[in-house]
């Protein structure tokens, strides 16, 4: 079931993102009087071979445009009259340009058509982040609250020198107000970062290696750090070991197999070590202590959502304030992608760890539980990431076309249609090679 939920979320998310991206090209073309022959979600051919297995699951002609749903579930496209792309080559453009064709329009109009999809993806991402921020307000966990008990250092953090119970005083010499900043991109994707921590009354500097993202990208990584906190059961999931033994909201698990439990990470560690086994839990319910004996799932889960004993701060935001904060969060996705690519190009992170394909996106991001709030957040993030990726100056991507158009606008010389066809072919080879690598990497990670 989890696999179907992951696939469903991925399919819906990509349909929204690709559909609106292609609509951006479509509406820009129509504004400038350019004919659009087709508008398809998914491909009605065996991508990238436009003349192989041509059929659609649904199609309807309206005006000059055929709208349809293709059978090949990867992306989508618009067929713009007079433009060389993955659906046609230069031989299709042998006749004289007509006024309604893409190639007959001024370079600045063609540039806006090429950037239309990117612009719409950015607008969508900003709107999603704006709406989420306005609805939820600004919720954060202060470092002051965290430092009452200190942090939990997971194995990767322990490897770099941090210890559970450390209190983080500053990051790279700068004071930090919110705990999320300690785990943000400035740390994970930063350069020459160090933590100043208080440990047993002493102040210690802990350097964070530049390849920390590489270590955290491993499938078996538990994460980096967390706030040390006691917990109570918040919600019991149906058909789980927790429900089978009658655990309830507000119960507190105080022991497992007679070993005391104070903090949430202690429970998680013991549960993983006893995965698939029957355990005896000591449970505090009000003033009563109960003993129950559930059998944990094979992945060490009991089946509840934990309520941490931490005081989060909340600030309600006006529409204007939410727009500023939400837009900043949206565009931080692009800046984080830039930092990530820098890590790849400098060899600090392998491309296989940093780049995810459809399987990786479904597993790492959407997950196996359908939560509309999470779905919208991930879709907003992917919309900004899609805008960034399409802006890369690679032939066959929007950014590659835009770069050529900028050259034409600066020099006043329009490249030949044969040149455009060749660059499109080179770009498709690059993209297909990258896609094959990503898909292979996805399968390998899913298997192992």
UniProtKB/TrEMBL annotation:
Gene Ontology cellular-component annotations: membrane
Transmembrane segments: 39-58, 111-132, 384-407, 428-447
Keyword annotations: Hydrolase, Membrane, Metal-binding, Metalloprotease, Protease, Transmembrane, Transmembrane helix, Zinc
Compartments, record wording: Membrane
Domain of life of the organism encoding this protein: Bacteria
Cofactor dependence: Zn(2+)
Protein name per the record: Zinc metalloprotease
UniProt keyword annotation of Metal-binding present: yes
Organism annotation: Jiulongibacter sediminis
Ranges of residues in domain PDZ: 233-287
Leading EC class: hydrolase
NCBIfam families listed in its UniProt record: RIP metalloprotease RseP
One matching Pfam family: PDZ_6
Annotated PANTHER family: MEMBRANE METALLOPROTEASE ARASP2, CHLOROPLASTIC-RELATED, REGULATOR OF SIGMA-E PROTEASE RSEP
Keyword Nucleotide-binding among record annotations: no
Membrane protein topology class: Multi-pass membrane protein
Annotated Gene3D superfamilies: 2.30.42.10
Family, similarity comment: Belongs to the peptidase M50B family.
Single Gene Ontology MF annotation: metal ion binding
Principal location class: membrane
InterPro entries, A to Z: PDZ, PDZ_6, PDZ_sf, Pept_M50_Zn, Peptidase_M50
């Amino acid at each position: 079931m989890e696999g179907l939920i992951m696939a469903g979320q991925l399919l819906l998310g990509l349909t929204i993102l690709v559909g609106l991206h292609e609509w951006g090209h479509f509406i820009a073309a129509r504004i400038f009087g350019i004919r659009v022959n087709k508008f398809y979600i998914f491909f009605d051919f065996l991508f990238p071979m436009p003349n192989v297995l041509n059929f659609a699951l649904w199609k309807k002609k309206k005006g000059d445009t055929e709208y349809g749903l293709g059978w090949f579930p990867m992306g989508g496209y618009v067929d713009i009259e007079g433009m060389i792309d993955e659906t046609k080559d230069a031989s299709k453009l042998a006749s004289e340009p007509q006024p309604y064709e893409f190639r007959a329009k001024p370079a600045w109009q063609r540039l806006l058509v090429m950037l239309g999809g990117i612009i719409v993806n950015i607008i969508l991402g900003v709107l999603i982040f704006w709406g989420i921020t306005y609805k939820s307000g600004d919720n954060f966990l202060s470092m002051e609250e965290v430092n009452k008990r200190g942090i939990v250092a997971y194995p990767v953090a322990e490897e770099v020198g941090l210890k559970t119970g450390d209190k983080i005083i500053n990051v790279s010499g700068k004071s930090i107000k919110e705990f999320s900043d300690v785990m943000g991109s400035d740390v994970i994707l930063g350069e020459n970062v160090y933590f100043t921590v208080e440990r047993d009354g002493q102040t210690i500097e802990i350097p964070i290696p530049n390849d920390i993202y590489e270590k955290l990208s491993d499938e078996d990584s538990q994460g980096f750090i967390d706030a040390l906190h006691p917990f109570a059961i918040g919600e019991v999931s149906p058909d789980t070991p927790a429900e089978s033994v009658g655990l309830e909201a507000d119960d507190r698990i105080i022991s497992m197999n007679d070993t005391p439990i104070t903090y949430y990470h202690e429970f998680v560690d013991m549960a993983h070590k006893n995965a698939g086994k029957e355990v005896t839990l000591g449970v505090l319910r009000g003033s009563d202590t109960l003993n129950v004996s559930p059998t944990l799932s094979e992945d060490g889960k009991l089946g509840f959502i934990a309520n941490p004993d931490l005081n989060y701060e909340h600030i309600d935001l006006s529409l204007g304030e939410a727009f500023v904060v939400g837009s900043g969060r949206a565009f931080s996705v692009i800046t984080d992608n830039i930092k990530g690519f820098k890590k790849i190009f400098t060899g600090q992170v392998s491309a296989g760890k940093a780049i995810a394909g459809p399987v990786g996106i479904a597993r790492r991001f959407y997950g196996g539980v359908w939560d509309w709030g999470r779905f919208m957040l991930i879709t907003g993030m992917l919309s900004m990431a899609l805008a960034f990726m399409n802006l890369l100056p690679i032939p066959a991507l929007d950014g590659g076309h835009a770069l050529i158009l900028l050259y034409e606008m600066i020099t006043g010389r329009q490249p030949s249609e044969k040149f455009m066809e060749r660059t499109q072919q080179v770009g498709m080879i690059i993209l297909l090679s990258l896609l094959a690598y990503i898909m292979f990497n996805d399968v390998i990670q899913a298997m192992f």
